[in-house]
Amino acid sequence: MQISVSSTLTVFHDGQFWVGVVEHVEGGELSVARIVFGAEPSNEEVLQFVVRKWESLSLHGSAEVEAPKEAKNPKRRMREASRELSRRPVSTKSQQALSEAREAQKADEKARRARARREAQEAQFSQKQEKKKQKRKGH
């Protein structure tokens, strides 16, 4: 069994910042990551990002995608590459996976805040109880 792996980095301007979207397809599963560059990155900056930080990317989501057919004809590959360059910068599946990842992060953060608030309330309650005990002992 042969597993195909492909990754693409698309850099575009979203109206405020320059953003990069990494689409990683491995074994028919799409995972995405979003990187905010801020100012327009030069080719060298994008290359340095790929060389230094590609391994440490945290990819989110997993959507099923169909594997593209491999074209052996070089002219066909060139036409497909130019078509790919002219299409919209971010795929709908990528946007959906990013939004699901954001929602999951929001839910995790909400649960973490609720747990921290509950722990703080319990600590405050136990502190009051201890203070009551100390007063009762006459200290």
Features:
139 residues, alpha+beta, 3 helices, 4 strands, 50% helix, elongated
Protein model, in words:
The protein has 139 residues and is an alpha+beta fold. The protein has one domain. The protein is 50% helix and 24% strand. The chain has 3 helices and 4 strands, in the order βββαβαα. A 4-stranded antiparallel sheet has the order 1-2-3-4. The longest helix has 46 residues. It is elongated, with a radius of gyration of 25 Å.
Summarize the helix and strand pattern as letters.
EEEHEHH
Spans of at least 5 consecutive residues whose pLDDT stays below 50 are: none
- The count of strands amounts to 4
Spatial shape: elongated
Main pleated sheet: 4 strands, antiparallel
Task: Describe how the helices and strands are arranged.
Blueprint (H helix, E strand, L loop, with lengths): L4 E9 L4 E9 L2 E10 L4 H11 L6 E5 L9 H13 L5 H46 L2
Antiparallel strand pairs: 1-2, 2-3, 3-4
